[in-house]
């Protein structure tokens, strides 16, 4: 903190953007994240806290900011939450001997945020009048910009000002009113790159210089007209699968917050209003993850097709749902067509993509990192909300859908509305081939090794894919990518054998070539790391043992060549790989399942692998028992928890094939039910599906077009609160309720190809 006399300088008039920001926040509850203890007294206390807090929604300055909202703005305790970001620029951020924040700028880059210093962790309420102030000086007189802005999407400013600091300390003080919807998680930043005023002067670069900032304050000046928070989206007290059930499915409604007299439920026909089924509400259970008591109602016996709701005698009611033989037909098409919308390198025409049509993207050749080598790596699916393409992630996704087809070919049609529909091959295989064709381009023709990923250096701005024009960098070969590649190509050789023998042979050749690379290159214990300045999804992995096992198991299953089995034995002699996961990192679950379902495989080795595999299944069963909503995630909800749930559903179905037991089918159905509405949040987690679904996914095309692509499974609850928006609005929520339908919340509400893919598997099997 620096004390000095200052000249008072007011910044020029504010620019307040009138664009709406999609906020749906709430002040929320003040209960703590539940402990692992299931103490009844503790729960009663928690419930009491929640209900009192929910009653008070008056906007007060106590709630919406007292004192300086920028914590540590005088830098007396170091940098605190201040962070530097560069996009083409270069800088170093520190606190200097005078106690000021100092930014040593080496290079400003070519955009305004080429060098940016930012702070997250405050809120701006609609109707509030605020004042921002700070002290600033610079070793070089130059213009820069301060902004209070939306932290995501188009990052538009709520308030901003341009200043030109020089060697004299300036005190900047600016009042502004928040005219847009309340933003619980905006960003305060200083753009120190190539700002507009420099561009206007024809300046493109600046010599190295330092900018010093101190005493940053943001205070509420007047809260009189602040708008209170909107009511948070309320989950219904009765949860059902919002898509519905096949007639023979296990059907369980889960009830919450009922009074003791509410001990019966009715299923009502929507068309006639008739009660068609009556059952008991029972088995009261404490759900620590949601901090509530839950109860269960079984209506499996209701098999008559129709559209219904479940009601209690006290009047609580579920969203409507359908019972029908073909209940999942449309939904399965939608969650599969999501992959078509993710296609890279081809035009999506309005005939197939409707409002989401766009020209071909990422057509230019990529450059192999650290070389001049150019390669055509067009095609494949964009990974997620960004436009990177990552082999290990793509391998999981394509494996899931090929396994789904292999097991239930009749579940997929050749008429789902993609360009290849009607070509005589199921659309799911056309979709798989689109990704496999890209993966083939990622294989080095000389060594057989497979490049790990291709993307720009940075994550793209919120633009349509054809507008991301940064140079494509092909990252080095990794053994994890090569192992996964060998596995899915061997799988493809099997799956495509009867529909396209030539393609099948191509895939098998590629698999063998990749496998040779693995044989020549030993275990990788360091794992892949992003090279140079590449910051896009790393998809690193501490071991490649499970990828090698996956490759061996698929090659063995497809070819019957026992040398691959010998290699599995040798791998096990070196210490057994983990077989408990179906992820992009852990793929041992696939390997184990494939080996255990290969006819003629070694019984001794099978016994050993089966024991390990069933141990992993038992852990999932235990988790499902602990969670009130019967899902295989409990206590802590990780990033992408919905994938963990969908993967658990797949694991249960695999287990049923290995050791038939009807409990596995029920457990798999419970995972599907959870994803489609039977969870504490009340959301059906797939865009456009059911009654209450995510509308603001973190997905660039959806954000740009202001409309969510349908059929995308979002990440779901994440109790680690791994983005500023989640930190701001979910801080005191129970773990299973740490979910926000907001496109700024990339740790809750992003989408990926490999979250949809296990859902495709699960739904195809239940169909
Ligand atoms: Zn693309």
Which overall shape is indicated by the principal axes computed on the Cα atoms? globular
Bound ligands, each once = zinc ion
Structural class: alpha+beta
| Total E-strand runs | 27
**What profile does the largest beta sheet have?**
6 strands, mixed
Distance between the termini: 65 Å
Name the CATH class of the domain at 387-596. Mainly Alpha
Give your account of this protein's structure.
This protein has 767 residues and is α+β, with helices and mostly antiparallel strands. It is built from 19 helices and 27 strands. The strands form six sheets. A six-stranded mixed beta sheet has the order 1-9-6-11-4-3, with no helix packed on it. A five-stranded antiparallel beta sheet has the order 2-5-10-7-8, with no helix packed on it. The longest helix is centred in the C-terminal third of the chain and has 24 residues, at 603-626. Zinc ion is lined by residues 344-345, 361-362, 382, 387, 465. The site of zinc ion (ZN) has 7 residues, from loops.
Features:
single chain; 767 residues; alpha+beta; Jelly Rolls; Glycosyltransferase; six-stranded mixed beta sheet; five-stranded antiparallel beta sheet; globular; disordered N terminus; binds zinc ion
